[in-house]
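User
Class, as today's exercise, I want you to study this protein, comparing sequence with structure tokens, and judge whether sequence predicts the tokens.
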Amino acid sequence: MTTKDKIIEVSIKLFNEKGCLNTSTRHIADELNMSVGNLYYHFKNKEEILTAIFLQYLEIVFKEVSSLDYSQDEIFLLKNFLLDNLEADIKYRFLHLELNLLVMTFPSFKKIMEEQLQNEIEMIKKLVHHQIKYGYIIEMQDEEIDLFVSNSWIIACNNLSFWNLLSNDLIDNAKKGALNMFYFIKPYLTKKSLENEQIKTILNVLKNDKEKR
């Protein structure tokens, strides 16, 4: 693991424990037994660390979207996508719990997040069009697709914060968030999708956590 990777991992740990806004670069450097000057050699400030963490999070969350072969009749691996999101929501939970404060506090982070969000929205639209083309998602007009994608983002960004208000069980809350997403998507799936084995097993995985991918 490189020094930059270590800084990122320790920062994630401290941001989850203390909150990003309550964690300074001094806290991060002390946890790593390095000088603040050494930390600044790798990252200019905390905002750069935060941005690197956010981009790492997106890479994990959109792994399945990026790996789909759009030239083929291929069903999107929704189960893997939901499980990747579940794991990422737990590891990077501060991004969900502090998101509004982070975008208000760090202008460069906000700008990068807006740019990345627009890119990811276009990726999801491309995915939806592909799944409609091959009969895995019901037919929708462009306006409906826009709303479907934006509603998906709203659920993904806010479900963990909602469940954390009601319970301190982080893993269970993340599972409930994944179920929120699944039940939102499910009415849009065709019979062809619902008969696919990986779709059939989603509820067992999320509710019982007994089945491996």
